[in-house]
Design goal:
single chain, 169 residues, alpha+beta, PH-domain like, 4-stranded antiparallel sheet, 3-stranded antiparallel sheet, 9 strands, elongated
Length: 169
């Protein structure tokens, strides 16, 4: 915190701030198109099997459509999770919000934080951790390896800047 002339506390300006969300490539319109295609194919196949006398297959085709719909809904619900990472000159704050809305938050001193990576030779950065006082906190778990590299570079630069301390402008 920084003291202001009126002796009030003002929040420090962030050196780095990011909100990380899981990637979802299918939009709502795309989801509707996929479900209509699956439903249409299942309906046409069901009618064909009904005409051929294999009427029990029709029910299983309907069950397949229901299961695909349920899988997409579970996937979209999981996409509500996110992580917030904020670095100021005196604090690194990691806030994880689950898809259920459960919040876990850690405040670390950036002077004691190290960014650790687990690298896979074939795929690149597999996992990122914030390490402080013997504790390893996973961060950016749902980013792709290339995105993790970019995020790690930006976060590492912000931690380095915080370790250098505030500068006069």
């Amino acid at each position: 915190m920084v003291m202001t002339p009126d002796n009030g506390l003002a929040p420090e300006p962030p050196l780095f701030s990011a909100i990380l969300t899981p990637h979802r490539s299918l939009t709502n319109v795309g989801f509707l198109a996929v479900m209509l295609a699956i439903g249409g194919i299942s309906f046409a196949s069901g009618v064909l099997f009904l005409i051929l006398g294999a009427w029990p297959v029709t029910g299983f085709l309907g069950l397949d459509v229901a299961l695909v719909y349920w899988a997409f809904r579970v996937n979209y619900r999981a996409a509500k999770a996110y992580e917030e990472v904020t670095v100021t000159s005196s604090e690194l704050r990691l806030r994880k919000v689950s898809h259920r809305g459960e919040i876990a938050e850690w405040c670390l001193n950036p002077l004691w934080v190290k960014l650790d990576r687990e690298v896979d030779e074939e795929f690149g950065t597999a996992r990122l951790f914030l390490v402080s006082r013997g504790r390893r906190l996973p961060v950016a778990a749902f980013l792709a390896p290339v995105e993790k590299d970019s995020f790690a570079a930006a976060l590492g630069a912000a931690i380095g800047e915080a370790k250098r301390g505030p500068t006069r402008q």
